[in-house]
Write a structure and sequence with these properties.
The protein is mainly alpha-helical. The protein has a single domain, classed as Four Helix Bundle (Hemerythrin (Met), subunit A) (Up-down Bundle), CATH 1.20.120. The chain has 5 helices and 3 strands. Strands 1-2-3 form a 3-stranded antiparallel beta sheet, with helices on one face. A hairpin with a 6-residue loop joins strand 1 and strand 2. The longest helix is centred in the last third of the chain and has 37 residues. It starts with a strand and ends with a helix.
């Protein structure tokens, strides 16, 4: 599992840790961002990635990690409360029991979706720091700059994603 956090010290770096790997990308280090940007492929007709564009994407992803972590904590607390109170107040009324079960199921779905989005966001940050961002995990071609700027969690180019969805 990957762990990311915004370094609140003067470096403004992004700490990326894996069980056996630890890397720090300083989001304010233009040389490092330029080096990383040169590693990211682009599709025909697109301009190369710039350090500024990489920083914008990484900053957005770090912000998403912070937001999703907060949402996950709140959703986990809500789910725990629902589970704790699952037997209280429902009485013998089947409608009340069914309503409580539906509410728990919806909250569980929300928690799982938030966890998935957080994992995707962390993976995107790991791909940036690893120099594999913008490369399709299926065919190895460029994902597309516009696609990644719109959805930075994308790991497949449009063609591979379409092929995946047809299965």
């Amino acid at each position: 599992m990957y762990v990311y956090s915004r370094d609140t010290s003067q470096t403004g770096g992004l700490a990326v840790a894996n069980d056996s790997l630890s890397t720090t990308v300083d989001l304010d280090d233009s040389k490092e961002l330029t080096r990383l940007a040169k590693l990211f492929p682009v599709r025909d007709g697109e301009k190369a990635w710039t350090a500024h564009e990489v920083k914008e994407v990484a900053d957005d992803l770090v912000g998403d990690v912070d937001r999703l972590t907060g949402e996950l904590a709140a959703a986990d607390a809500e789910l725990s409360e629902l589970l704790r109170n699952s037997g209280d107040g429902a009485g013998d009324d089947q409608a009340d029991s069914g309503s409580s079960a539906l509410e728990r199921e919806q909250e569980l779905t929300l928690v799982n979706n938030t966890r998935d989005m957080l994992a995707q966001t962390q993976r995107a940050l790991a791909r940036i720091s690893g120099g594999t961002f913008a490369t399709c995990e299926s065919c190895g071609k460029a994902i597309g700059k516009a696609r990644l700027q719109a959805f930075p969690r994308a790991t497949l180019c449009v063609e591979c994603k379409q092929r995946e969805e047809r299965r």
